[in-house]
Amino acid sequence: MSDPNGMNIAFGENAGGCGSCSQNGGAKRKLTAYNQFMKKELKALKKAHPAKAQGDIMKMAAKKWKASKPASSHKKSSTPKKSAAPKKSKRKSVSRK
Question: How far is 42 from 56, CA to CA, in rounded Å?
Fold first, then answer.
């Protein structure tokens, strides 16, 4: 199949893909603790609150995640950030009389 510009377009089994997803032969990544929690929690919240909007359900699940563990375990890195050194001015100082 081709688009109006003459480029080939493939869908489904004929699609090339980048290889990062399992359907194209790539290895599937292991879910993080956050992903596992959210997958389980979203399913339960959607069942309990079918009329709620998706954004509201996400907020509810995020609050539960935050409350479920100490804040220190949610951080990505424990290395402190370097403080930025003050930038030097490119202007020459001029004394005014």
Answer: 11
Beta bridge partners of 2: 8
The verdict on pTM exceeding 0.90 is: no
Please give the helix or strand (H or E) that residue 2 lies within, else none: none
Q: How many CA atoms lie within 13 A of 55 on its CB side?
A: 0
- pLDDT (tens, 9 = 90+) of the chain, 97 residues, equals 555 666 555 555 555 555 555 566 678 899 999 999 999 999 999 999 999 999 999 999 999 999 987 655 655 555 555 666 666 666 676 667 6
Q: Where are the domains of the chain?
A: 31-69
